[in-house]
Amino acid sequence: MINLLQNNTIFYRSLTVLLIFTFFTSCENQDDGNTTASNDNTTESNIVSPDLNIPSDYLIGGFAIGTQSYTFNRFSAFEAIEKTAEAGGRVIEIYPGQRFKEDDDTPFNAINDDQIEELKAKLQEHDIMLVNYGVAGMSNPEEARAVFEFATKLGVPVVTASPETQEEMDFIEELVKEFDIMMAIHNHPKPEDPDSDYMLWDPNYIAGLLDGRDPRLGISADTGHWMRSGVSPVEALQLSEGRIISLHLKDVDQFNLQAVDVIFGTGVGNVSGILEELVRQNFAGHISIEYEANWMNNVPEVAQNVGFIRGWTEAAN
After folding, report:
1. pLDDT tens digits, 149-189
2. Distance CA 222, CA 201 (A)
3. Which fold has domain 2-28+43-316?
4. CA spacing 20 to 30 A to 229: which of 7, 50, 255, 274?
5. Domain ranges in the chain?
């Protein structure tokens, strides 16, 4: 199995070379309404961004790149680790409801101490680092405390959640200070219902939740959901300067709720501009590729997305 995974990884990495070359040579002639600055124009800054202290061995071109395991939600957490490694990723973020193993349907958020040790052995086997857990429910102090206690056992530096009120932020902030684990607010799309009170789609609203709070509180930026809400990812990142902990990085084919995921560089997401902005902000978090398409066989697409970022960093340097 390991030899097969290694061979597939080599194949997919090789496949991306032609795709990367094609993209970077053709993008000069593209004009889809999204202006992308040249890599040469990426500027340095004194911005202090949240630092997850991810070892350099798990970085690709300076970025900690991997997957949000929801990409592989038809499979178990163990299989998601395998597929992340096969696609060339180095880190993983696992979501609460994923089943544990092929022969064990325990939801990930219910695994016991023995299963956690199995998980750590599986991660070590494939040389993948677990960097985040979420999106987790934290609607009350008791639920939130349980998440932080579980995260401590997992050994992750950050958890992702969707608090919508200052009251929720108050008790989460206390737990961040107590456990010294970061919390990143995740955004979903703007609801179609005009009477909905859901506001996390709006980066201005999230900025208000974070204003004046502990620097270990920040944002898990889902770029695809921003675009589904009609929000420019680059502009949203600029608004969220210094608070970006992680990304669910996507490219999509259009700016509306009907948008579907596409391979990086082929949609309207300006992924190059996103990466430039992360560099400008001295981003030190992690990038979770979350590819919500071709569910049963999307490792090749994820590998191409990893290759896009690798190629971009090589071109930028």
Report:
1. 999 999 999 999 999 999 999 999 999 999 999 999 999 99
2. 9
3. TIM Barrel (3.20.20)
4. 50
5. 2-28+43-316
